Amino acid sequence: MADTIVFTRGVPPTEAFPTDELAQCFDAALRADTAVVLQYGQQPGYPALRRQLAEEYGVAEKEVLIGNGSLQLQDLVAAYLVRPGATVLTEQPSYDRAIGTFRRRGAKTIGIPIEPDGIDIARLEAEVQRQVPAFLYLVPDFQNPAGATLSLEKRRAVVDLAVRYGFWVIEDVPYRKLRYQGEDLPLLRSIDPSRIITMSSFSKLLSPGIRVGFMLAPAELIAAVTRTGEDTYLSPVLPTQAAVAEYIRRGWLQPNIEKLKALYRPRWQAMVSATRQHLAGAQIFAPDGGFFVSVMLPEGANYAGLVARAKDIGLVLTPGQAFFADADQGELPDGERFVRLPFCAVTPAQIDEGVRRLASLL
Ligand SMILES: Cc1ncc(COP(=O)(O)O)c(C=O)c1O
User: Fold this and answer.
1) Is 203 near ligand 1, meaning CB less than 6 Å away?
2) Residue range(s) defining the domain that contains residue 207
3) Could you tell me the pLDDT band of residue 66, with boundaries at 50, 70 and 90?
4) Looking at the 3D structure of the chain, how many domains does it have?
5) In this structure, what CATH number is given to the domain that contains residue 313?
6) Average pLDDT over residues 254-270
7) Distance, CA 287 to ligand 1 centroid (Å)?
8) How far apart are CA 69 and CA 78, in angstroms?
9) Does 70 sit in the ligand 1 pocket, CB within 6 Å?
């Protein structure tokens, strides 16, 4: 269908890439530091970028590991921390690839329901009391897929539980700098870093293709995960890390983030208002930033076979079930009731038309 509207792609549109600037930075980085950039080595990451990140987050360099995208770092952390019989807790719903990664590493992956202000703390504590997990995986800012942001009170409660019961928390924050309104809430690590692994990446701020992601954690954990990484890929991809370091050195990152926000803000506004207007009976998660709005359709809505019926009228949706880990209590919610609506790669006109089509199916 010529005017098919695609609501599946949680990726930056091609026009968002700073292509010329990145090309200049690649050229400069390769020529300026050839012996390092084109060689094996630097297992914890390209030194200049590691220094820049350490400075930005107020940590020591030995608390920073840069790898080939943050998903690979999640996988390495899971490979290191998950022991036979271990559980990993996530929000419910959660980032589908993270759930898949943790399961592949052998963890029983259990989802704790998410509310508009983040994970349900009482359900989280009940599950932790049943079994202390290897770690809890959270996307506290503009969550993928739901769009929820963890409140300050809940941030404190999560950190308190992690310290009291002794489990790790991954705070995965790739969307944090794409805030379209309101004020930043503190990172979990700024409340107490002792049990926190912070992950982020340049995929949403520069380009996913460069595969530059990073994690911040206590030095011993960084050293252990670095060894797992070295055993897996020998050295990380240094040319892209060096190009990012050069991009930051030139002072280009913040202006690029401002450009992205100017591009995405009208799309975000269009998605928030279209869902409120056309899907009034649904529970709508409308974040202050990021890539996603989501809706939980009412139980009485006609959502059976939704993805296939949407395709027939030129609307491509992601099946909701992929975002659900095992249930902590009772039945798993029907995944088809949950619809993730990424707005960054579609225009406001497409967004309005797509949400109208979705509403017409219910
Ligand atoms: C919450 C979250 N974490 C991690 C990633 C993967 O990031 P990277 O490209 O750095 O591997 C994504 C990508 O969509 C994401 O939404």
Assistant:
1) yes
2) 19-249
3) very high
4) 2
5) 3.90.1150.10
6) 98
7) 17
8) 15
9) yes
